[in-house]
Amino acid sequence: MNLRRHIVVSVLGLLVSSGALAGVLPEDRSDILYHLYEGGGVRIDGPSVLMRKQVGNSLSFVGNYYVDMISSASIDVITTASPYKEERTQWSLGMDYLRGNTTISIGYTTSEESDFDANTYSISVSQDMFGDLTTLTLTYALGDDVVGRSDDPTFERDVDRQLYGVGVTQILTRNLISTLNFEVITDEGFLNNPYRSVRYADPNVPRGFSFEPELYPNTRTTTAIGLRMKYFLPWRAALEGEYRYFEDTWDIKSHTAKLGYTHPIGPFVLHAKYRYHDQTGAHFYSDLFPRSQATNFRGRDKELSEMTSQTVGFSASYEFLSDPDSWGFLKRGTVNFSYDILTVDYHEFSDISAGQPLGMEPLYDLEADIIQIFFSFWY
Amino acid sequence: MKAIGRILLVLTLLAGTAGCSNFEPWVKPYERDRLADPIMALDMDPVSSAYIMHVYEAREGARGGEGAAGGGCGCN
Questions:
Q1: What Å distances lie between residue A234 and A174, A267, A268, CA to CA?
Q2: Which residues pair with A113 in a beta bridge?
Q3: pLDDT of chain A along its 379 residues, tens only?
Q4: Judged by CB atoms within 8 Å, which residues 1-40 of B form the interface with A?
Q5: pTM, whole model, 2 decimals?
Q6: CB atoms < 10 A from the CB of A328, how many?
Q7: Is B20 exposed, middle or buried (0-12, 13-18, 19+ CB in 10 A)?
């Protein structure tokens, strides 16, 4: 369930942003990627294959096949359930239509696993303005999800999601480009994890606490505004900075900042980045409730708790195929390697797996390795 | 939600009138060679950035507002 509630946003990153160059269609390219996330007792890996092809002068089609193979013995799982394995498969299809300075993009994504189905429909319109210095993009997406339980085939709950986005990309100088994005997402339906439990103080048991199912509000509205700038340095390198402010109706507020540097050397392109994220917790989150059913809503999802996460990343790309030596219809090819280290410090989520006495448990933290290896071809 | 609707309406009207102006861009098309360099792409590898965005969204309470949605450099 951790991986599922956000599908609508990351999918749009693939389908909508790729069609956002309003006056020109995206390049024809294919990517074959292997991804691996390992940390906190969780291992997730799988392929992602993307193919984009222009048809005629005004249409471009894109397809993506993505798999998460999950093997989880996370802190949540080992304290209240049993380790499990599962697989999530996701298909995305999109089309961009270019007319003058306007691009209209539509997309559809479907995601399936044993106890969760998600469908997302999206449309966006991009318009180049003011001598092509400004690109305005309006986005709308609709998500229609069904939550199930692997141990109860009769359990079925709906979640409806809607996303409204406005983006403005602005050329500021001949070396500097910026983009400002504003997104509002609404969720309505069964928003909690059907398996996860909250912890409450229970003097009737030796360890001093017991568990009961979590219960979230049925609605959530999130608002995010992000500013990103990229600057071309005199020695042919790029420096980028990004900041995002986020808040929602569950009282989570966050600040996220990112700094990146890209440096080409011959056929190589090297990239380094640092990302910092800090958030407050949801109003119904508690590491330990004072008693059973202490509040109307209750959750102990560590992703909704007060936390700080940091990422240090490095990637290298090698161009092994370029225009003069192209292979038939393949004009250009690169092989890419990316390695990120993600650390998360939870400020209000105790590690109860060590069996320390109540109130003496250390706070939980995790470190994860994120690896991507992929080939890209342009044709 | 009414406020969002008004913002969208204003932006749509703005986009609709943009083609009627005789605006002189302060960065001319022939001055955009650096912005057209592949290293200046706002989303150099969509398949990779979509994946990493998915990783963050699954592990943090925040979502949206990041990424490259919104644009290109008009370097056609």
A1: 12, 19, 18
A2: A116
A3: 444 455 555 656 566 544 344 578 899 999 999 999 999 999 999 999 999 999 999 999 999 999 999 998 888 878 877 788 889 999 999 999 999 999 999 999 999 988 889 999 999 999 998 888 999 999 999 999 999 888 888 999 999 999 999 999 999 999 999 999 999 999 999 998 888 899 999 999 998 999 999 999 999 999 999 999 999 999 999 999 999 999 999 999 999 999 999 999 999 999 999 999 999 999 999 999 999 999 999 999 999 999 999 999 999 999 999 877 777 888 999 999 999 999 999 999 999 988 888 888 999 999 999 999 999 999 9
A4: 1, 4, 7-8, 11-12, 14-15, 18-19, 21, 23-27, 29, 31-32, 34-35, 37, 39-40
A5: 0.89
A6: 6
A7: exposed
Q: Which two tokens stand for residue A162?
A: 């809607």
Q: How many helices (H) and strands (E) does chain B have?
A: 2, 0
Q: Does CATH number 2.40.160 belong to domain A7-378?
A: yes
The answer to ipTM > 0.90 is yes
* Extents of the domains making up chain A: 7-378
Q: What is the DSSP string of A48-90?
A: EEEEEEEETTTEEEEEEEEEEEEEE--HHHHHHS--EEEEEEE
The interface residues of chain A toward chain B in range 260-289, judged by CB-CB distance below 8 A, are: 262, 264, 269, 277, 279, 281-282
Q: How far apart are the first and last CA of chain B?
A: 36
